[in-house]
Design brief:
- The chain is an alpha/beta fold.
- It has one domain (10-357).
- The protein has helices at 10-19, 29-42, 45-54, 63-93, 105-112, 134-143, 153-162, 195-201, 216-229, 236-250, 254-266, 270-284, 290-295, 303-316, 330-345, 348-365; strands spanning 101-104, 125-128, 147-148, 169-170, 177-181, 203-205, 208-213.
- A seven-stranded mixed beta sheet has the order 3-4-5-2-1-7-6.
- The longest helix is centred in the N-terminal third of the chain and has 31 residues, at 63-93.
- The protein starts with 9 loop residues before the first helix and ends in an 8-residue tail after the last helix.
C-alpha cells in the first residue's frame, strides 16, 4: 500500500460536498458526473439530495445530475415507507412472543424519525430479540412466509452456534430481508457486550407501543461496532455518514457526551467507538468534545496500529468509481480489514477452520459437504 489515495478522487469530492453542500455552486459539469457516480457507488445519492435541499443549494445543480439526485431521493423515500409498513406488520406478528421489538440501524432511524433516515437506502430490517425467544420468533416468521437464505448444513451451524443472529430471512412475495439478532456481536467475538443491558435501556418509539430503539448512546455504540468490527464494509461511507448524523443530533446535549465513553466501556466496546469518533472527525468534521475523546484514550490503537488502520480505512471508506485511477493499495487494505474483522470475531482455531472450509472445502466439494467445522 505504498501509494496514497488521491486527494481529488470522486470519493473525496463526495465527502467534500456532504461536508459543505453550499459549495455546490462551484462544481463543474464534469465533476458532477464523477460525484453522481461516487454517490451511486456509496448509496448516498438520496442523502446528497437531502443535504443540498437543506442548504438551499439544489438550484446550483445542473438538470441532468439533479434528475439523478431527485430520483434517488424518491426511491429512498419509497424504501423508508416500505420499511415502516413492514415493521408495523412485524410488531403485530410478534405481539405476545416478545414484550417489544427492538429495532436496529436503518429501521430504527426510520421509525424514530432520526436524521440518518433522510435519503438513506435500506438494504434489510434488523431486529434485536431476547435469545430465549429466538426459536419462537423464527417459527412464527416461518409460518407467514419468511424463509431462510442459507440452507447448507455448515452455514446453519455457523449461524446458530457462533453468530449473533439467525440466518437471514427473506419474504418471497414482498422481497424484504430480515436479520433477527439476539445480541450485536458473535458469541465467539473478543468483545462481549451485554445484550440484556441494551434491551433493558431501549426507548419506546412514540406512537408504537410494541416497538423500541436503542438508547442514544447505545445506538451510536452499535453503529460504531457494526462498522469497525466487521471485516467487510460495502457501505462504509454511508455508515460513517449515519454516525456523523447521530453524533450531531444526540450531541446537542452535554449529557450525551458525558455518558458515551462510560457506556461504551461498560459494554466492552470502547475500541470501536474510539475508531468511529476518530474517522468521523477526520473525514466528516464531526464535532467531538475533547473530554469525550480523552476518556476513551485507553481504547485507542497503538501509533503503528492506527497508521495501518488509517491507510486501510482511508481507502475503503471512500467509494471507488469504476475506471477511476488512484485506487492503489485498495485490495491489500480490503484484505487487511477482512482478516482483522474475522480475528476480532473468532478465536484463531475457529477462524482457521472457517477459512479452510470457505476457501477450500466449499469450492472443491460444494456447500453440501460435512457440516463439521
Amino acid at each position: 500500500m505504498r501509494s496514497r489515495p488521491r486527494a481529488d478522487t470522486a470519493g473525496t469530492g463526495l465527502v467534500a460536498l456532504l461536508r459543505a453542500p453550499g459549495a455546490a455552486h462551484g462544481v463543474s459539469p464534469r465533476d458532477w458526473e464523477r460525484l453522481i457516480a461516487a454517490g451511486r457507488e456509496a448509496g448516498l445519492l438520496g442523502r446528497v439530495y437531502w443535504a443540498l435541499q437543506q442548504a438551499g443549494a439544489l438550484g446550483a445543480v445542473p438538470a441532468a445530475p439533479a434528475a439523478h439526485l431527485h430520483s434517488a431521493w424518491l426511491a429512498a423515500e419509497a424504501q423508508r415507507r416500505a420499511v415502516v409498513r413492514e415493521v408495523a406488520y412485524l410488531a403485530e406478528l410478534l405481539a405476545g412472543v416478545v414484550p417489544r421489538v427492538v429495532l436496529l440501524k436503518g429501521a430504527a432511524y426510520a421509525l424514530a424519525g432520526l436524521p440518518p433516515a433522510a435519503g438513506r437506502q435500506f438494504s434489510d430490517i434488523d431486529l434485536l430479540v431476547p435469545r430465549e425467544a429466538l426459536a419462537t420468533v423464527e417459527a412464527r416468521l416461518n409460518r407467514v412466509g419468511w424463509l431462510g437464505t442459507h440452507h447448507g448444513a455448515y452455514d446453519q451451524r455457523y449461524y446458530r452456534e457462533w453468530m449473533h443472529e439467525l440466518p437471514p430471512l427473506r419474504h418471497p412475495q414482498r422481497g424484504s430481508t430480515l436479520d433477527v439478532h439476539h445480541t450485536i456481536l458473535p458469541e465467539t467475538a473478543r468483545f462481549r457486550p451485554d445484550a440484556d443491558a441494551l434491551v433493558s435501556a431501549a426507548r419506546a418509539v412514540p406512537g408504537h407501543s410494541r416497538l423500541a430503539v436503542l438508547a442514544p448512546e447505545d445506538m451510536v455504540i452499535h453503529s460504531a461496532t457494526h462498522l469497525f468490527v466487521d471485516g467487510e464494509i460495502p457501505n462504509g461511507l454511508r455508515d460513517l455518514v449515519d454516525l456523523d448524523a447521530l453524533l450531531r443530533h444526540f450531541g446537542s446535549t452535554a449529557a450525551f457526551w458525558d455518558a458515551l465513553p462510560g457506556r461504551a466501556r461498560a459494554l466492552q466496546l470502547g475500541a470501536p467507538l474510539w475508531l468511529a469518533l476518530h474517522y468521523c472527525r477526520r473525514m466528516l468534521g464531526t464535532p467531538v468534545p475533547g473530554a469525550c475523546a480523552d476518556a476513551l484514550a485507553a481504547d485507542a490503537p497503538s501509533t503503528t496500529g492506527l497508521a495501518v488502520l488509517d491507510a486501510c480505512y482511508g481507502r475503503l471508506l471512500l467509494p471507488q468509481v469504476p475506471g477511476e485511477p488512484g485506487g492503489g493499495g485498495r485490495g491489500v487494505a480490503a484484505m487487511t480489514i477482512f482478516l482483522r474483522g474475522h480475528w476480532l470475531r473468532m478465536p484463531l482455531p475457529l477462524l482457521a477452520r472457517h477459512a479452510f472450509r470457505k476457501g477450500v472445502v466449499v469450492p472443491l466439494f460444494g456447500d453440501g459437504a460435512s457440516s463439521r467445522p
